[in-house]
Every structure is written in structure tokens, then in C-alpha cells.
Amino acid sequence: MPKYVLTGVGGGIGSIAASYALEIAPPDSTLVFTSSNPDKISKDTRDKCLRAVFAGAEAVTLISTWAFGRRHQQAQNVIDTAKECGVRRICYTSFVGADDPAPVDEMPFLPRDHKQTEALIRASGLEYNIQRDYLYVDNIPNFFAPSWKFCDNRWVSNSGGVPGAYVAREDCGRVLAAILLGRGEPNKIYDVTGPEAITDEQVFRWICSNVKNQGKFVTVSDQEMKKYWLERGLPIDLLGDFSQIPMKLCIDDLLCCGEMVARGYMAKTSNTVETLTGRKAMSFQDVLIKYRATFE
Question: What distance in Å separates the CA atoms of residue 20 and residue 180, rounded to the nearest whole number?
Fold first, then answer.
């Protein structure tokens, strides 16, 4: 009876993965779901909990946290414990651009920890499946749309008019469940993308035409974007005060979202979603219509 451990089920992608895993898990398998805040417990206690959960598992997932700059250190704890417990395979939610050949400190902000974590996984000797998710379509209603009114009814974007194949978070969660349960090829890295590459302005025009007119789309440079938001009090890291501002991404995270698109990291599409889940990847329209109340 194989045992599969899905960590981080309290988060957006983990909760989706848990639901889909319950749909597709073989009847003779055991699913273990975990969720915790490791910062609230001691290292010794955390390590004991990991060992108890991982013992006898065929595969475990590793989902990135919001701890920018030290996510690879958190990953090392999981990898070490997995090896100690005899886990055969790690399934990791990485990010597009993690294969950038540049030194880590010269890469865009968001893929840096992912590149380091991928290297740790490959060096571990464990079998792995890695999914490099593109930016979520869901980020638009969750992070960008709430700031449009604050920005004088404008979407201020630094994506440069370059198309990007935004992916549904729901599809990324299903892919994670699929690779956890063995649908992926051994030691393979999958790009998880939407079905087509579209520009931010195309998305904005669709929202204005089909949901509600939101105002104007404005393209700016990275430096103009940085200056604009810093002048309005956007924190430089996640420890800052976001209480008086609707944008909930720190400055480096915000800038990098546009930079990843503008530099062409998200230009290509893949068939990963359909190959591993049997469902076609959701269009941006399919995703955004579910957030109609956010835009109205």
C-alpha cells in the first residue's frame, strides 16, 4: 500500500492538489496531508514531526513558501528528512526561469530560490519530479486588480507588451497531485503553462469588455514602476507595513512579475496540463470569470 505525503495543503496550490489527489488516488494507496507554520515550533520538534510523517512514504511534495531568500534552506530540511526516512521521490513546485544559467544574484528575483532548491534536489540522489509553474492568472484579480482604483483607475504594468502564457493556479495544483501519484516520468522537469501567450493589455481589455470597465492600461519601465510604487509607500520586503496600500506584493516581487513576462520567460506554451491530468489547460477567460465579484 504506497503512501504519498502532500505538504502545504493549507495554501492555494496545496489545497487544490489535495482535492485532485483524492479524485485520482488508486484505492490501495494512502494519502497524508499536512499543513503547518514551521516558524512557530522549534527545529527539534519540527524535525521529529517530519520524520513521523515521511516514514514509509513513496513520495512527498515540496511547495515553496513566502520566505524569499531562505526557501532553499527550508527545502534542505525536507530533503534531508526525506532521505533519512527512505522516501524515494521528491515532487517540487518550482518556477519558470529556474534554469537561467546566470549566477543566482544576477537572475530575476522570483526564480532565485527555485534554482537553488532544484540544485539541492538533484544533488540529493533522490528521484524527483519538478514542475516549473508560470505566473498564475489568479494573480491578476488577487494582487493587481485591487490596486487599479488606487492607481487612478489604471493598471500600471512593466511587462512591456510581451505575451506570456499565464497559467491557472487550479491547473498547477492538479499537476502537483498527478506527479505525486506517479503520473510523471522519473527525474523530469515539466513547464506548467496556460494554453496561449497573451499580453497584460489583452487581459485588461477582456476584463473591461466582459466584466467591468476598469479604466486605462499604462505601460512603464521597471525603474518607473519602482519609483511609482515606492513613492506610494510599497514595502521593500514582506516584513513591511501593507495596511495602508492595496498592493500586497513587495517591490521586488511586483517588479519581477512584469520582468518575467517582458524578458520572454513565459513566451512558450506546453502540453503538461493535458498530458498529466487529461484536461486541457484553462484559458485566462475561464479563470477570470470566476473572479467577477473582484472586478465589479
Answer: 11
Rounded Cα distance between 91 and 235, Å, is 32
273 residue type, one letter: V
Q: Give me the long-range contacts of 119-126 (CB less than 8 A, separation at least 24).
A: 120/72, 120/75, 120/76, 120/79, 121/62, 121/75, 121/79, 121/90, 121/92, 124/79, 124/82, 124/83, 124/90, 125/83, 126/79, 126/82, 126/83, 126/87, 126/88, 126/89, 126/90
Q: What is the reported pTM?
A: 0.92
Contact between 80 and 26 (Cβ < 8 Å): no
**CATH code, residues 3-133+167-193+269-281:** 3.40.50.720
Distances, alpha carbon 196 to alpha carbons 14, 277, 281, in Å: 25, 18, 9
Beta strands 89-95 and 154-157, pairing class: unpaired
Average pLDDT on 136-156 reads 95
Q: Are strands 127-133 and 59-63 parallel, antiparallel or unpaired?
A: unpaired
pLDDT of residue 56: 86
Q: CA 72 to CA 217: how far, in whole Å?
A: 36
User: Which one has a higher pLDDT value, 40 or 88?
Assistant: 88
Cα end-to-end span (Å), the chain? 49
Domain boundaries, given as residue ranges, for the chain: 3-133+167-193+269-281
Q: Which residues contact 31 (CB under 8 A, 6 or more apart)?
A: 3, 4, 6, 18, 21, 22, 25
Residue 213 contacts by C-beta under 8 Å, 6 or more apart in sequence? none
Residue listed under C-alpha cell 513591511:
240
For residue 135, give the DSSP letter. Answer: P
Q: Is the pLDDT of residue 44 over 60?
A: no
Residues 80 and 186: their CA atoms lie apart, in Å, by 20
* Phi and psi, residue 269, nearest 5°: -105, 160
- Of 1, 38, 2, 32, the C-alpha closest to 14 is 32
